[in-house]
Amino acid sequence: MKKEDKEGYQINTSAIKRLCVGPFQVNAYIVKCRRTSVGFIIDPGGEEDRIISLAAREHIDVRYILNTHGHVDHVLGNEALKKAFNAETCMHETDDDLFARSRTGIAAARELGFPPPAPADRRLKEGDIIQAGDLSVHVIHTPGHTPGSVCYLLSGNLFTGDTLFVGAIGRTDLIGGSFETLLDSLKTRLLPLSGDTIVWPGHDYGETPTSTLAREKEENPYITDFILSQ
């Protein structure tokens, strides 16, 4: 398949926009309920002005900023966008503790030359549901890349952050990472989902910007070699 760079997607009751932003080229997603125009942002990794402009152009009432995990590249825009939209920041409680409230996380951010993230307004846990207009976003805890990594499931769309990429998975050699834990998260939390679930990763590292779980089961070597072959 050839690499594509689509800017907008219409899926069921939601509209999904993707922007590749910031010094680490993070996929930031803006998702809108098409009936109410209420929406949310996933992983604003910088270039806040671009995100604000797109949300304004699409008339999106941003209520939440959802972080898939606490690494600095995925939270760079949190505070600016929180202020711009009067929105709540949301992160799994484990990563909120590690990256925003512990000395370890603060030191890790400073080593990269960035300030640590501010504590989340809403601390998430497995099974939480975030309501944005008609959209119900389900929180799936997928530790491994970080202890508090999550994926967000919305009507057959799975926003995977750095848990699952197209053809790869997130690195596990950083603070709190565990290869075995990440494989277990994939096996027990993600692979049981429907094969036609669309994968929206945190970085555009693969042949295409999106995939499906069925395709990843067939082609992703970390799934075929380390999980399905066992």
Structure description:
By secondary structure, the chain is an alpha/beta fold. The protein has one domain: Metallo-beta-lactamase, Chain A (4-Layer Sandwich), CATH 3.60.15.10. It has seven helices and 15 strands. The protein has a seven-stranded mixed beta sheet. It is globular. Mean pLDDT is 92; it is low at 1-7.
Task: Jot down its keywords.
30% strand, Metallo-beta-lactamase, Chain A, single chain, 230 residues, seven-stranded mixed β-sheet
CATH superfamily: Ribonuclease Z/Hydroxyacylglutathione hydrolase-like
- End-to-end CA span: 28 Å
Please tell me the total number of domains.
1
State the low-pLDDT regions, or none.
Answer: 1-7
**Assigned CATH class:** Alpha Beta
Secondary structure: helix percent: 25-40%
CA gyration radius, whole angstroms: 16 Å
Strand content: 25-35%
Mean pLDDT: 92
| CATH topology annotation | Metallo-beta-lactamase, Chain A
| SSE-based structural type | alpha/beta
Number of helices: 7
Order of the strands making up the biggest sheet: 1-2-3-4-5-6-7
N to C succession of SSEs = EEEEHEHEHHEEEEEEEHEEHH
The tally of beta strands, per DSSP, is: 15
CATH architecture: 4-Layer Sandwich
Largest sheet at a glance? 7 strands, mixed
Shape: globular
